[in-house]
């Protein structure tokens, strides 16, 4: 087909060929849009039919689809369902396919082992010995599916929403939306799920404006990602250096270095943070806790590559007052003293700890991407635009404990982030499901 296109192209004037390509592109995207719109309009009727069927069942099978270990937000909800007499939950680790087979197997094994060690009933959906994928619809036949990630192409198509059109599907964002990108609210996925459990009334309002279905499937429950932070009263000390005199800082750079909003400061600050760890060796320790996609992107970067990336990560692992955080971060958050980051994911989540946080602004254009909620949370951050301001935050806010924004953060958490009914977000979701199914 490629050869045929080249032959045809050689006989057609450049302008005419360019016009035909544009027509093809427009036609394709228009067709996809109309196709998705058709299924979005039909989704409520499909869900109602599925709901009527499972209302007759004694046991409700619930499949949780997990991709990356670090974006799991269903811990408390899963535990509540385990204790419930009528829910049968199970976790399926789904293949992350957008960075090749090696990365897929690495992420799948990593998530599987971590959850198995916690005592979860977890299943791999891909068998690397046989090369076979599990058909969840025939082997488990879920009545409800909870998705972890909304992006088509990130996970194998067998475990994406299009395969579960006749199933009750639910979604909790893997991070609280602080940016106004279309992919945070109006992918076809967001419009096709049965229930999109949103974090705050602000997010519900944004969804009603952005989504093609006007947010009709959005239910405000609070954010389940907060629940482990709120309920964990005895966090494990996961810091390598046990010297109680050292302040504990988490540095968590994003992976968007060269694309989209380009929020990540990693390339400019990678050496600087290692230097900080050495400079303040007797005063603090730093946990390098990057976005899970940062490593694979660095390995594929022509200026980095796998060898340089491995060497850099190993420096953090071997530092006397440094460490590499690679996955579950709840205990890390709860036992830290401060967070330095450029990630929208943690802008609100870390606020629950009550501790100070610094947002690193790479360039001012990033601020244009923030939604209303993001603007409110950024106001509660200390901010940096250069190395000196990072140092000022460490010396004054962290080491000298001059945290002038503490009360303001506390008020925002109580007034905006936490549920007004006193229940956790996971309890609100479970109550909602009970009311819908067990009438």
Description:
With 439 residues, the protein is of the alpha/beta class. The chain folds into two domains: 50-222 and 421-437, Rossmann fold, CATH 3.40.50; 230-417, Glycogen Phosphorylase B (Rossmann fold). It has 17 helices and 15 strands. The model has no long low-confidence stretch (mean pLDDT 91).
Instruction: Give start-end ranges of low-pLDDT stretches.
Output: none
Give a short account of the largest sheet. 7 strands, parallel
User: What name does CATH use for the topology of the largest domain?
Assistant: Rossmann fold
The figure for the number of domains is 2
CATH class of the largest domain: Alpha Beta
Percentage of residues in DSSP E strands: 5-15%
Identify the quaternary structure here.
single chain
Q: Radius of gyration over alpha carbons? A: 23 Å
- CA-CA gap between termini: 56 Å
Core attributes:
439 residues, alpha/beta, Rossmann fold, seven-stranded parallel sheet, six-stranded parallel sheet, 17 helices, 14% strand
Kindly summarize this structure in a few lines.
This protein has helices at residues 2-10, 14-54, 75-83, 100-117, 136-139, 188-192, 201-210, 227-231, 266-279, 292-299, 305-318, 330-334, 346-349, 372-378, 387-399, 406-417, 425-437, and strands spanning 60-66, 87-93, 122-124, 126-127, 132-133, 144-147, 168-171, 195-198, 218-220, 247-252, 284-288, 322-324, 338-341, 357-360, 382-384.
